[in-house]
Amino acid sequence: MRLSLALVALVFSGTVACGGAISIEPGEDTGTDTGGDTDLPPDALPDTMPDGPSTCGFGACSTATSCFDGCNECWCSPPGDWSCTTKACVDSGPGWDTAPPPPVCPPYFPAPGSWCPGPLKCSYPNSCGSSDSAWCDYPGSTWKTSTGPCAGTCPAVMPKEGTACLGPAKCEYWKSCGTSDQAYCDPSTGRWKTYYSDCPTPPPPPPPPTCPTSPPKSGSACSMSWTTCAWNNGCGAVIEGYCEGGSWWLSDPGCVPGCPASKPPSGTACKPPSSMACTYLAPSPSPGFCESNCFCAEDYRWACIPGGCSSGGGGGWEDAGPPPPFDAGF
């Protein structure tokens, strides 16, 4: 088929893939032309430009120059426009005027600090229900990464109120005082809600054990384990008792002849036959009891001196009065 001669430049996209501004071919296309001979007028090809796909058929040109782009021939017509043959050429790939493809996220989570094509922001599901992120700021920079929190798990420490979370999660944090604080991840807001509990006020210490004002019956029940008490027996001696295993155990040494029922004031008159000291309980500054020993001196007056002290329940030093009718023990 013969094409009519024309100098109107036609631009094709995709038909000729070897590049160049394409126009009609002058002369007859025999179908076997390899780009050598043309029927251009002799004065149309006085000069030849260097062949090459990067310049032939593109940009400014000098009138009456020609070039070969590897597939088609081009010539520069007045006032400086390219015209080229329209042979179908084998596509050799994208040319210089083809835009590079946009960067895409890699199919795997990239290593932090590795090269990236950028700018990109990528997300990758992790193994615990949330997503890990990777982003590239600009082409040729390096990947920056962050890992998302696991859904439904509790932090190691109590989270702060209003910080981000992945629900649902309800966490409990025990305190040394026996109570616990709680944190709840609200799935509707994706934020932590926290609830703090108060530590209980410690109870007051139990009161110190006190001894009965009078000697109990030996073997009777008691609730003050390992408590020792003492009472005046009313005739110059001291009854000692202690609570063990829930029962009272008492010991009474008996009466001392000539001793009054209670401690006599020092200096008051006395008379024999009292040749032994009379023992009486005396007040103690600390829980327990102290003894006072009294004897009838040579001037027939009572003399009382301090005796030993024992620890035990308070209040046991009070006089019990005359000995009551009870089993004095073992």
Write the layout of secondary structure elements.
Layout: E1 47-48, E2 65-68, E3 73-77, E4 81-84, E5 120-125, E6 131-136, E7 144-146, E8 169-174, E9 180-186, E10 191-195, E11 227-232, E12 238-244, E13 247-251, E14 278-282, E15 288-296, E16 302-311
Summarize the structure.
The protein has 330 residues and is mainly beta. The chain contains no helices and 16 strands. The radius of gyration is 59 Å and the shape is rod-shaped.
Characterise the protein shown here:
There is one protein chain. The chain has four domains: 1-99, no CATH class; 100-148, no CATH class; 157-198, no CATH class; 227-311, no CATH class. The protein is built from no helices and 16 strands. It has strands at 47-48, 65-68, 73-77, 81-84, 120-125, 131-136, 144-146, 169-174, 180-186, 191-195, 227-232, 238-244, 247-251, 278-282, 288-296, 302-311. It has a four-stranded mixed sheet with strand order 1-2-3-4, with no helix packed on it. A three-stranded antiparallel sheet has the order 5-6-7, with no helix packed on it. It has a three-stranded antiparallel sheet with strand order 8-9-10, with no helix packed on it. A hairpin with a 5-residue loop joins strand 5 (120-125) and strand 6. It starts with 46 loop residues before the first strand and ends in a 19-residue tail after the last strand. The relative contact order is 0.08. Residues 1-54 and 313-330 have low confidence and may be disordered.
